[in-house]
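re the bet — no i am not wrong, look at it urself. input seq straight from the record:
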Amino acid sequence: MTGRQQGPAGEPEPTIAVVIPAYRASATLGRALASVRRQSLLPNRILVVDDGSEEDLAACLGPALAGIELIRRANGGPSAARNEGLERAGTELVAFLDADDVWSDDALELLRQPFLAASNPVDAVQARLVDVWPPESGLPSLSAPRRSFNVGAALFRRRVLQGIGGFDPALRNGEDFDLWARLRSAGARVLTLEAGVLHYVRRPLDPGFAAGSLHAERLHSLKRLLDRERDAQRSP
């Protein structure tokens, strides 16, 4: 969407791709795309990865997909869809936004800023999110900004994600937590910001909504990480 720009010192600024996995998302994808187009810093590419939806996103959304790269693939889950976008992005930095979530207008600008500091290079920048609750939840419509493992509130150096193999396609829940755990284990340099950049739309009836399920997924991810490290230590 944008050309190669130059930073204050005349150095080329890093290119950014936004990857949006979409499955049965025609009702919400337009809203997510609108939040990307409102960014104060526009990305160089926007890739929507249709993960085997039965619906025709092009027919459903029409003009909302103008200028968007739509990739269709057989259903493999959110991790596999994100990995496809990661491989096709071709940019230095990559961000992920779920098709039912929304960014603040300055999300990419805030997340990219630390990558411009040559004196302190980073591999990932992680900010906060705001939970958006529906009326039937009985909770305030917007939460206070909070820390989370949700990758929608982050920006990554693409080659670093590729170096750890991207998202684990075996996981359809808890894949965000697993990715952060493997990044930390690989020694990635992660900077955290206090700003809230993501509106995370919550649905209390979603599978995995229960806190116990979320904790179980994270424990499962940690066990997988420990098993991988143990196997690596045993290898000659």
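see?? The mean pLDDT is 86. told u. also The CA atoms of residues 100 and 196 lie 17 Å apart. so pay up
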